[in-house]
User: Which sequence fits this backbone?
């Protein structure tokens, strides 16, 4: 017991306070009516429960004043009061209300309570030392109850978030499964609180890309995270909405991301497969956009979707180049691919490959010798385009320029040796 606080001084306090409970609750309710009308209604409609809690409050208050300040008496925590106020905190979260408004209401209630407690204590002859102990007890008790409500609020919030994430994961599994029906998806979406879009796309991020993982955490709440062992990303609803594509571009830049093409929800599993092909092409350097939007590269994705089939096609259509050294084969293949892309425009080919137009003419002469009349056959050219136009060996303009600079040292001042002629046993030609 605190020094100077005698049990006899506080024995008559609880009954006297209980008599004042109706007046205390009425005053609190009236003060809350304007700013916290919901709390005022609760006090009015749940008066019996509130009275019981208030009686317990008075008893605990006296016990705290008689005990060591700073802790509840033995056996009082956790107790029914603490559990009640934890539940109030949980309800606060469930109803979407801010915790600070609840704690502010507690402070108002504490002020009113202390006003009546102090007056009643003086009326029953409580000494100043005991009155001081009561004042400290009020603050301790309100602090504990506020902490209990805050704890309940946070616990409910955490449980709700965990439940929401679990329901969203289940929804993603359904959406990405080609065995789910629309009714099951709709039910799962309702449980997860997700509005079914008309169309959606997926974003894929490499699990090794730490920036990409950080970017995913900044997507808005309408996006569903994809958290699979071999698949990391998100489902993005209505990616074609005005301005959304540009926002995705800005957000995903540098994250090594692939954005799948937008499709109705039932076709999303197939769209994921296409996005995975695009991610593979991005990793291999065939697609160099940042980020890669799959709908801008459907041609390359179609060609590269089956690597073994593409390799077989290349072996077949490039058979005339068999027997050449790897360096010569690469140069002639690069030239042939550029010739197909530019419909034979020698100036455009030379600009792309960073060689002299005369070099292009010489290489094309070698290719015509190797392929014969086949290069004039539209069917052969179509097959060659499929085999070469989206080739990883094509590289980026920067890689082509780097190879050109390597072949044409600055010391030559623009004069290049036609390396292909020498490698094929012909006479090297100097091209300006």
Assistant:
């Amino acid at each position: 017991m605190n020094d100077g606080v005698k049990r006899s001084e506080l024995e008559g306090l609880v009954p006297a306070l209980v008599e004042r409970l109706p007046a205390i609750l009425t005053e609190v309710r009236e003060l809350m009516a304007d700013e916290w009308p919901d709390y005022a209604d609760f006090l009015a409609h749940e008066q019996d429960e509130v009275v019981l809690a208030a009686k317990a409050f008075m008893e605990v208050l006296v016990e705290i004043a008689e005990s060591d300040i700073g802790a509840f008496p033995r056996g009082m925590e956790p107790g029914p009061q603490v559990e009640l106020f934890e539940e109030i905190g949980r309800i606060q979260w469930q109803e979407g209300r801010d915790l600070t408004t609840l704690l502010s209401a507690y402070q108002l209630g504490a002020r009113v309570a202390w006003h009546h407690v102090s007056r009643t204590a003086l009326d029953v002859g409580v000494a100043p030392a005991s009155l001081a102990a009561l004042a400290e007890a009020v603050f301790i008790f309100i602090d504990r109850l506020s902490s209990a409500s805050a704890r309940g609020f946070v616990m409910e919030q955490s449980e709700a978030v965990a439940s929401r994430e679990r329901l969203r994961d289940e929804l993603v599994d359904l959406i990405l499964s080609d065995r789910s029906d629309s009714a099951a998806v709709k039910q799962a979406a309702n449980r997860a609180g997700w509005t079914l879009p008309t169309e959606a796309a997926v974003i894929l991020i490499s699990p090794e890309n730490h920036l990409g993982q950080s970017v995913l955490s900044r997507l808005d709440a309408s996006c569903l995270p994809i958290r699979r062992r071999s698949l990391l990303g998100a489902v993005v609803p209505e990616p074609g909405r005005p301005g959304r594509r540009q926002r995705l571009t800005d957000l995903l830049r540098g994250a090594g991301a692939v954005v799948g093409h937008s499709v109705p929800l039932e076709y999303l599993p197939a769209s994921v497969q296409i996005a995975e092909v695009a991610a593979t092409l991005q990793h291999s350097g065939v697609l160099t956009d940042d980020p890669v939007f799959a709908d801008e590269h459907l041609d390359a994705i179609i060609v590269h979707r089956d690597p073994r089939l593409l390799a077989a096609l290349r072996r077949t259509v490039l058979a005339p180049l068999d027997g050449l050294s790897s360096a010569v084969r690469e140069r002639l293949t690069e030239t042939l691919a550029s010739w197909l892309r530019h419909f034979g425009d020698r100036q455009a080919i030379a600009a792309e490959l960073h060689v002299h137009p005369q070099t292009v003419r010489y290489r094309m002469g070698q290719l015509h010798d190797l392929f014969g009349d086949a290069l004039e056959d539209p069917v052969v050219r179509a097959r060659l385009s499929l085999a070469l136009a989206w080739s990883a060996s094509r590289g980026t303009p920067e890689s082509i320029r780097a190879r050109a600079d390597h072949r044409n040292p600055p010391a030559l001042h623009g004069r290049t040796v036609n390396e292909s002629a020498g490698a094929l046993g012909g006479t090297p030609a100097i091209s300006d």
User: Anything to note?
Assistant: The longest strand covers residues 199-205.
